[in-house]
Amino acid sequence: MADKGDQAKVATPMDTDAAKDPNQVGGSGEAEPTRDMTELIKDGKNAKSIVCERCNSKILLPGVAEFVTKEIFLPHMKKKSEQQKATDGENLSEHWVVSDMMTFENVGFTNTVGTAKYLICADCEVGPVGWHDVTDKTKYFIALDRVQHK
Amino acid sequence: MDEDDVLTTLKILIIGESGVGKSSLLLRFTDDTFDPEQAATIGVDFKVKTLSVDGNKAKLAIWDTAGQERFRTLTPSYYRGAQGVILVYDVSSQVTFDRLGQWLNELDTYSTKADIIKMLVGNKIDKEKREVSREQGLKFARKHSCLFIECSAKTRDGVQCAFEELVEKIIQTPGLWENDTRQRGFGVGSNQGQPNEGACSGYCSLI
Q1: Domain ranges (residues) in chain B
Q2: Which family does it belong to (chain B) (predicted)?
Q3: CB contact under 8 A, B43 and A102
């Protein structure tokens, strides 16, 4: 279990309420998406299936998730150095969001850290691929950088 | 899209002693090799999985006790609303088999559905040292009205089967799930006017 210092480190960069988060911008705006989204979005939803980049497990079907930009801190999915701590990570800003956990085809939820649950692949358990704040049951985020689109 | 037709969403629990391999039952049903190093540091709380059984797509919310079994008694909320339970023991460990009765007691105490479907799973049949015979498992399952299967989460033998059989049995017990179906999840009525022949094997009378 993470000690207090670790928890704070994980929890503080994440705003608990996405609706009030000044960082959040819908689709376009100051936080310009760094990739070409035209292929990935159709009618405001994800145009392609979202799958695990490691084992291809299907996470979301096409047409069920909205694209949002929001700064969310996620621990690294891969070990980048020997010195890397479990709490090291990066801020990611491009996400798919769904409002009901049963929208997912396959996904795993970690135990709660602070108020956060990390989303992982349900099959190979690689992750975190996304994030959920337990105080807001209507938002489940999947980071575009952590998954494949097929 | 046919893929979107979810018949029902079900809550499934996995219970049993520590170390019997409950968590590994939750891993995927394919030939992908699982990396044991992956062991999540935070620990997995629950999973959402989609399963097709005879053309019926069911979404499962699967809850693993995630180590809480060490405290002997799980919180009642863990059991609340569950339609199915997978009761796991290790065929190479008699003690895990002997404790099954206590797990069933706990289930009877806290389960909110009288006709919850139970499946007994004898795990780790890949191990050479066997302490619990198939017959013993079968006998226990019959006595307590459980489905029964032996499997190996390591070789994947029987694991897929265990979930499929459990879901099949739940679907055949309409009182268990009909009232719970969310309007969003119930895909049969909104089938875009196209009867799905594949979905009809055996379950038509229920629908």
Answers
A1: 6-172
A2: Belongs to the small GTPase superfamily. Rab family.
A3: no
